[in-house]
Amino acid sequence: MAVGAISYYLDHVFVGRVVRYTYGILNSIKYDHSDPEHRKRSHKKYLGTTGEFQLDVFSLIVFKVAVFSSWLHARN
Predict the structure, then answer these.
(1) Domains of the chain: which residue ranges?
(2) Could you tell me if 30 and 8 are in contact, meaning their C-beta atoms sit under 8 angstroms apart?
(3) Which one of 44, 48, 52, 61 has the largest count of C-beta atoms within 10 Å of its C-beta?
(4) CB atoms within 10 A of CB 54
(5) pLDDT of 46-76, one tens digit each?
(6) DSSP 10-63
(7) Confidence (pTM)
């Protein structure tokens, strides 16, 4: 492969990734009655261990089809 040969010659390697899924975690946030998005889901609020109303949310870590790339210096 010409690209691999050139990459090896230049002593760098290009690494790229395409994410096929969205990754995240389930999280709880304080319910804010002034937030219209929270009011839409007010039927899902619950009393948390802190004594305040909370909502469960999905906190995104990596978005689907995000492309990560970087140049790595090859080790000899």
Answers:
(1) 2-73
(2) no
(3) 48
(4) 17
(5) 999 989 999 999 988 877 765 555 555 545 4
(6) TTEEEEEEE--S-EEEEEEEE--TT-HHHHHTGGG-EE-TTSSEEEEEEEEEE-
(7) 0.52
